[in-house]
Amino acid sequence: MRKHKIISIRNLTDSTFVIRFERLKFQFQTGQFVMLKIPCSLEKREYSVYSGENDDFLEVLVREVEGGKVSGKLKKLKPGAEIEVEGPFGFFKFNPEKFALQKFLFVATGTGISPFHSFVHTFPELDYQLVHGVRLMEEACEHTDFQKEKITLCLSGDEGGDFYGRVTDYLITQKIDRETNCFLCGNSEMIYEVFDILTGKGIPVSNIYSEVYF
Ligand SMILES: Cc1cc2nc3c(=O)[nH]c(=O)nc-3n(C[C@H](O)[C@H](O)[C@H](O)COP(=O)(O)OP(=O)(O)OC[C@H]3O[C@@H](n4cnc5c(N)ncnc54)[C@H](O)[C@@H]3O)c2cc1C
Fold first, then answer.
1. Residue 1 burial (CB < 10 Å; 0-12/13-18/19+)?
2. What is the dotted CATH code of the domain comprising 96-212?
3. Among 91, 34, 73, which residue's Cα sits nearest to residue 57?
């Protein structure tokens, strides 16, 4: 693992924050994740890269899990401190050259939006629709980084989003082309349910990619 200096911590909500740290010579493909470890501690955890492939820093978007061993400690880090970074890992990659038809559906819950943020920063011209599910409006972190007409905010516990309900309730109502490349990221329950909805709509399994956080 290599040590990278923290540049800044940006608090988005009481429990969600973006850590920016030195990139050094770290190479990754958008969609991949890193393992983070605080020096002298034992545990390390996976975090998707939030920043783009061409940024000269690295960022991750983290939600502090109550009683969590690592996420709580990450929140307390200060600029100038060091963090150990290993990777990149994972096959949840969005190299657009690999896709015959460049039409993407991204479905995320909570911080599962992170790899899609990296993707959109790296390839802003691509044809995508992002469906993001959170409970409250304040949890819709940094949506300004996405084109407004390409994002559907599903709020399950608040008014004011584009859809009132869970991402699964929304997707059931939608017509989705068979050729769409569907990427799902977030909690396992959502991923299993969305997988069933998409295959039920005729999307081939080979066009569905997923990254389970928990
Ligand atoms: C490939 C991959 C990528 C990931 N990317 C991100 C990311 O970009 N941003 C991010 O915030 N997290 C991400 N995660 C989750 C992250 O790795 C940690 O699991 C999470 O931060 C909790 O770690 P912790 O040490 O604080 O909690 P732990 O000490 O591991 O767990 C404490 C308690 O919380 C429960 N718990 C663990 N994780 C969650 C969760 N996510 N939600 C609710 N309860 C939980 C555990 O069962 C346990 O009871 C990713 C996971 C994977 C596998």
1. middle
2. 3.40.50.80
3. 34
User: Is the distance from CB of 162 to CB of 152 less than 8 angstroms?
Assistant: yes
CATH class belonging to 2-89: mainly beta
> Ligand 1: residues whose CB is within 6 Å?
33, 45-48, 60-63, 65, 67-72, 111, 114, 211, 213-214
Q: Is the pTM here over 0.85, yes or no?
A: yes
Q: Which atom of ligand 1 is nearest to the CA of 211?
A: 1
pLDDT beyond 90 at 214: yes
- Whole-number Å distance, alpha carbon 62 to ligand 1 midpoint, is 9
Domain positions in the chain: 2-89, 96-212
Q: Is 24 helix (H, G, I), strand (E, B) or coil?
A: coil
